[in-house]
């Protein structure tokens, strides 16, 4: 079943707009993976890069986990694929499966949505250990949105290289 992509709100407040565009970009990444086998999802872009669609899904699971659960939620967790918080590990999807990657990513997205919904406002402040700075939920949502935008661009090229599919 093809992924349905929600249309971000055209007339909404800041929080609803950020939430809508995050969900739009989350669905875009899923759409880029629709209809592909595990082997196709693991196909790497070009040497020396190990970038693949499945690697992007795994990476975005780490992004969601880090910014929402670890930073905003204050949970003391390792990354999904690295106990040493090495974000590059997620990109290596050579033995990964769609089920494993998507289950982890969707699990982290659900946690992220819950944490964002329960936050009092976009002005909630959390400390980013990695950046060594305090940040607001507003900045985090914007940063994660930009991560999706950048990586969905990669996903466009990866998908086109697999089967020629382009666009939306």
Describe the structure.
This protein has helices at 14-33, 38-42, 53-72, 98-118, 137-163; strands at 125-128, 133-136. By secondary structure, the protein is mostly helical. It has a single domain, classed as Four Helix Bundle (Hemerythrin (Met), subunit A) (Up-down Bundle), CATH 1.20.120. It is globular. The two termini are 17 Å apart.
The largest β sheet comes out as: 2 strands, antiparallel
Known CATH architecture? Up-down Bundle
Name of the CATH superfamily: dinb family like domain
Whole-number total of structural domains: 1
Poorly predicted ranges: none
Task: Report the count of strand segments.
Answer: 2
**Termini, distance in Å?**
17 Å
Task: Give a summary of the structure in a few sentences.
By secondary structure, the protein is mainly α. Helices cover 55% and strands 5% of the residues.
Structure keywords:
5 helices; 55% helix; globular; Four Helix Bundle (Hemerythrin (Met), subunit A); 168 residues; single chain; 2 strands; mainly alpha
